[in-house]
Amino acid sequence: MKMTGKVIKYGDNVDTDVIIPARYLNTSDHKELASHCMEDLDKTFTERVQPGDIMVAGWNFGCGSSREHAPIAIKASGISLVIAKSFARIFYRNSINIGLAIVESEQAADAIQEGNKITADLDHGVLHNETTGEDYQIEPFPAFIQTIIENGGLVASIKNGSIK
Amino acid sequence: MGMTMTQKILAAHAGLDQVEAGQLILVNLDLVLGNDITSPVAIKAFKNMGKEQVFDKEKVTMVMDHFAPNKDIKAAQQCMMCRDFCGDQEITNFYDVGQMGIEHALLPEKGLVVSGDAVIGADSHTCTYGALGAFSTGVGSTDMACGMAIGKAWFKVPSAIKFELKGKLNQYISGKDVILHIIGMIGVDGALYKSMEFVGEGLASLSMADRLCMANMAIEAGAKNGIFAVDDITKTYVKAHSDREPVVYEADPDAIYEKTYVIDLSEIKHTVSFPHLPENTHTVDEIDEIKIQQVVIGSCTNGRLEDLKAAAEIMQGKKVAKNVRCIVIPATQKIYLEAMEAGYLKTFIECGAVVSTPTCGPCLGGYMGILAEGERAVATTNRNFIGRMGHVDSEIYLASPEVAAASAITGKISAPEEVVNA
């Protein structure tokens, strides 16, 4: 899996209530959720995000509620990859289950700056910063999780019988 | 190698003799839960999986609690989708308005979870049932759909932190103060991906309401689950609420814990989490005057009968401060009825508080008590993130029912002693 995009960067403990406020959880429509993504933290996000952009954040990204609407809203906004120092556990598994690419890397999350252009090669475990020329190595997912990702998420994994 | 309580339950439910931290396993589930917000997404995913029937209609439960009674047309549509699905699937434990309560207060009360169970719920506070000695954790809607389809969930076996409790809580101090103190100490990611296991002689002074409240907020420290050692208090509770036999798992003497904290319950003070993270804790005796406009007493954290009793005893014969709106939300219909029969609801109403039907409502900024710009609330709920209860520039202070009740009377964040001795 390979993607290239411009970076939109946030800090630590970005919670699911700011990713998608609960007042919008009376719908599960992807486009509608995307139209309110990040609005309590960054009112400019929905205007400036471009398809393929990469979100970078600090520790404990996606903490709080179990709402899958959060990774759905991010994915539907056009974000191709989220890089964070760490992820809250429910957000982490939700992302894998719905097929939003995520990478945990303290080094990359520290070094990458707002506006940098990043090319991620997840199969080879490398993030390349086109702006600064730096490379960051990333840990591959365990085989079991890799299978879910390769299948395109948990629904497809159940459907094709690779998890039963 | 020794296993923790959590690891033993997971091993047993994965058909394995032994598991270790970091191992990825498929776990057989005793219960799969969803609510009116997360279930619609799960129902769509379930249908996409191409499954006709849920794995076991007795082991799937849906509770209409977040935006129900329906707060608007969209919420009504979501509840209708759940209602239709549960009707078609003949799901036994579907709880709609009239039978429903806040899910994590309702399920233990209905006896749907017993010690030793493995439970997932598409709600982050599903970790509540760890109070009963069950493995229980929050997941997303796709995991819920997978659980409904095949009765299984994938997990990375967690490592654990042990909390050894000793001593006894002082008067007007409750489980909420203990868990806020712990989150303040270890931080909102202090237990990330891990189990929080609560053991020790101090458990004897903690009621089931205290334990359910503490396990409920394990997620606010990032934990996968919070779990309590099973004792006579647990067994008595389970026996009173369920026909099923509890299965008791104990950690091995040589179980590996990443860290052990010893907590003397007698040293816990009234603790409040300041905006905008549960880890921003202060004890009430060290804070300056903080005026408030709203108090919420309720939620899956603190909407149980013991919580309402504690609040009513403090508010009895007094009046809610001018310019403060006090909203009391019994967590289930049974609690509502018992609080009425015990006279607590009369106390609240005579004080100038309002009493709502069970709902998550204001806790997540749904309805039934939304904050305006610049307003402050003391709430017995579990999260004080930016905009959680309303306007992005409002503030939430998390506290126990005792502190919330006292604050409603004084109009500022207060210790119960200020009101009771006044």
Task: Describe the fold and architecture.
The complex is a heterodimer of chains A (164) and B (422). Chain A has 164 residues and is α/β, with parallel strands linked by helices. Chain A has a single domain (2-159), classed as Aconitase, domain 4. Chain A is built from eight helices and seven strands, in the order βαααβαβαβαβββαα. Chain A has helices at residues 16-19, 30-34, 45-48, 69-76, 89-98, 106-111, 143-151, 154-159; strands at residues 2-9, 54-57, 81-84, 102-104, 117-121, 126-129, 135-137. Chain A has a seven-stranded mixed sheet. In chain A, β2 (54-57), α4 (69-76) and β3 form a beta-alpha-beta unit. Chain B has 422 residues and is of the alpha/beta class. Chain B folds into two domains: 5-265, Aconitase, domain 3 (2-Layer Sandwich); 271-420, 2-Layer Sandwich (Aconitase, domain 3), CATH 3.30.499. Helices cover 31% and strands 18% of the residues of chain B. Chain B is built from 14 helices and 18 strands. In chain B, the strands form five sheets. Chain B has a five-stranded parallel sheet with strand order 4-3-2-5-6, covered by helices on one side. A five-stranded parallel sheet of chain B has the order 16-15-14-17-18, with helices on one face. In chain B, strands 10-9-8-11 form a four-stranded parallel sheet, covered by helices on one side. In chain B, α2 (39-48) crosses α5 (141-150), α6 runs parallel beside α7 (208-216) and α10 (305-315) packs across α12 (344-351). Chain B is globular and about 60 Å long. The termini of chain B are far apart. The mean pLDDT of chain B is 97.
